[in-house]
Amino acid sequence: MVKGANVGLTALSENVDAVIVSLGWASSTGEGDADVSVLLLDGDGKVRSDADFYFYNHPVAPDGSVQLLGKAPAGEGSEDRIGFDLTAIPAEVERIVVAASRYGGARFGELEDLRVTLADGSGEDLLRFAIDDAGSVSAFIFGELYRRGDEWKFRAVGQGYDTGLAGLATDFGVDIDDDAADGPAEDCIADEALGDAAAVEQVPAVEVDGLPGTESAPAPAADEAVPQAVALPAVPTPRGAGDDAQPTRAASRPRTAKKKVTLPRAAKRSLADNDSWTQARLFPVSALKSDRERETRATSVLLAVMAQVPEFGRRLTAGFGAPAGRMETFTEVSLPHGDTPRRPDGVIRVDRAGKLWTALVETKTNGNALKSDQVQAYMDIAARRGYEAVITLSNDVALEGSPLVDVKVDGRRKHKVALRHLSWAEVAHQAQMLIRHEGVGNSAHAWLLQELLLYLQHDNSGCHGFQNMGAAWVPVRKGIDDETLCQGDPRALEVVESWERLIRQVCLGLGGDLGQKVLPVQRARRGADPAQRRARMADELCVEGKLQAELRIDGAPGVLTVGADLRTARLRTSVEIPAPGQGYPLSWAKRLVRRLADAPADLHVETLVEGETGGGPRGTLERLRPEPADMLPKNGARITGFRLTLVKGMGSGRGSAESGFIRSVDDAVQRFHRTVVVHLERPAPPKAAPVGGAASG
Q1: What is the chain's mean pLDDT, rounded?
Q2: What is the mean pLDDT of the segment spanning 469-497?
Q3: How many CA atoms lie within 13 A of 664 on its CB side?
């Protein structure tokens, strides 16, 4: 693409519900770097609140719509990736600005090979915008995603600010504290004095909708008409560079990209005489006998690995507002609190440019619940001592709008402390993503993460994730069986919350196995407010006796649906796949049967027909294999797709034992994906023409 050009994403690929934007650069000295940032803007071109500003201290959106994925070596430079789930972007957000900033007096003109690329959900590169005129600016807008009707489009912006990230953020409505300018220059958002903002000149942007490769036309004269053109809200013009001379840097040998280390999936052949021999482990679990011992060792093991494996420590703390910097961790720290000192399970400290970010850690294992009085005490201590966060860690999974502990916050205190929660399932997920799929810096780091993962997965560690549907599970199932459960019963709401926690954990487990993002789908028809959505699901549970959830898997041909019918004690896992755009219906049916050659014989196949809510022909795969034509509607109706379903019995217990409900749901999702979804045809790769004269990718 060229500067000012724009293109619709659906013209480039059919798989653009989730996209990855990558910002890249190189440096002749090998030392040049920058920090990425994202701003979500409403129709007025401003952020709705400071929460719409994502940068290194705020890298992840709670709904998963925005996720700063971090840096990775690329050629002789580095690349910073940002993941966007465009289906989760709030409706009132009309534009997404993607920018980067430098600090410590550095300028973008000192970097080489500045570029932005965009890839679809399957990882296929769709477009590339190369920048060769960044100039002497310390913040730079690379591009933006914006809505045009029901479609998302990308625009190559290429504009800079010499007032740094603070100036850029302020122009888009972000509140910058007055004392931010007192911080060190390296702190990125406080790296330069805010000063007096100059008048901003608006640049008219002319957009020509159409095929890939369309460039924006030059701005017309005042008396000329613009044919079929729509003006975008203008991006503020960059501030001019000052007269200060650019700092010179000593030349050195350019750095080369380091190869990331991942561990093989297949275990090496053991030299043991028999299976009864137990392999020596760095973190043994044989001596753990009490909950206190489990909590102490689990905390120490986790914090030690976080400090020694920077990629892992950063991954766990980035979502809590921690900066990227040197991390140290501590256990059993004594802190004064009234007459008796308090001893949080751990402390995490990160140093960035001489500023400390501190979090207290409270740990629970073996399904033990967090205690409100303990967490309240740590919140009070953190507020008095100027710490930034309290992190709770347990088997439970936190839900939006449903806190695990009730904590009172003194509004008179100027210093605010963030309360964050981390589940053991998420810790295991992040470790698995790094050592199995994304890689770490060296083999020692990979080995440490593998030892941590083996520890967390051991039965005696107590770190098994969410494993109990709660006390309301049995009464609710009994009430559904004898039809005495009434709408508004608070026990039904408890079960719905437990179900949502279970689904989130299932997503973590499946995503860790696949190395792909797996997220629960929240349909708009259920409403945006979490409390109202769960109340509606609880009423449906009372009336229909069913629980249902949808999972979106990157690269999958459709959304995976899992439902539990508490009346019949049956689990249903299904996926709907669209009909191919070309060919004949009989060819579609034959190709589908061939792809499902290794799928279970009891897989239920249903043909979806346009205009018929009851669906079309249906049958088991065993019956349809010899006669694929039985899948075609007799009246010649248009086929819109196919629904594939597996049904199995569900566990009766509320826990995660072999016969428990939690285990049965997890097994059903894993089996369905392993035996059905992996065999289905992936979305067709895009056939994109070069955009704006530049090679795509």
Answers
A1: 81
A2: 92
A3: 21
Tokens of 446: 């990979």
Residue 254: partners with Cβ closer than 8 Å, 6 or more residues away: 26, 27, 28, 29, 30, 76
Instruction: Outline where 330-408 has alpha helix (H).
Output: 372-385
Q: What is the pLDDT of residues 327-370, one digit of tens each?
A: 999 998 888 877 788 899 999 999 987 889 999 999 999 889 99
Are 485 and 479 within 8 A, CB to CB?
Answer: yes
Q: How far are the Cα atoms of 385, 590, 599, 649, 669 from residue 677, in angstroms, in the given order?
A: 52, 17, 9, 20, 10
Quick check: 116 and 143 in contact, CB under 8 A?
yes
* Whole-number Cα distances in Å, 669 to 143, 247, 596, 664: 38, 57, 17, 9
Q: 557: helix, coil or strand?
A: coil
Query: How far, in Å, are 57, 324, 415, 443 from residue 318 at the CA level?
Result: 7, 8, 20, 23
What backbone torsions phi and psi does residue 425 show, to the nearest 5 degrees? Answer: -65, -40
Rounded alpha-carbon distances, angstroms, from residue 11 to 91, 121, 602, 686: 22, 14, 39, 9
Bridge partners (DSSP) of residue 572 are 563, 647
pLDDT at residue 682 is higher than 50: yes
Q: How far is Cα 596 from Cα 98, in angstroms, rounded to an integer?
A: 42
**In sequence order, which residues have a C-beta less than 8 Å from that of residue 71 and are 6 or more positions away?**
33, 78, 79, 80
> Cα–Cα distance between 228 and 149 in angstroms, integer?
15
Residues 6+ apart with CB under 8 A from 364: 295, 370, 392, 393, 394, 395
User: 106: Cβ–Cβ under 8 A, 6 or more apart, which residues?
Assistant: 32, 138, 247
H/E stretch holding 391 reads: strand 389-394
Q: Are 349 and 307 in contact (CB under 8 A)?
A: no
**Radius of gyration over alpha carbons of the chain, in Å?**
27
Alpha helix ranges (H) inside 155-253? 164-171
CB 183 within 8 A of CB 190: yes
Residue 612 pLDDT greater than 60, yes or no: yes
For residue 53, is pLDDT > 80?
Answer: yes
Classify 329 as helix, strand or coil: strand
pTM for this model (two decimals): 0.64
Read off the amino acid at residue 177. D
pLDDT number for residue 251: 36
What's the pLDDT at 29?
A: 66
Q: Where are the alpha helices (DSSP H) in 257-404?
A: 291-308, 310-317, 372-385
Phi, psi of 609 (to 5 degrees): -120, 140
Distance CA 357, CA 119 (A): 34
Does pLDDT of 232 surpass 50?
A: no
Cα separations in angstroms, 52 against 97, 143, 501:
11, 17, 26
Cα 506 from Cα 519, distance rounded (Å): 9
384/412 Cα distance (integer angstroms): 12
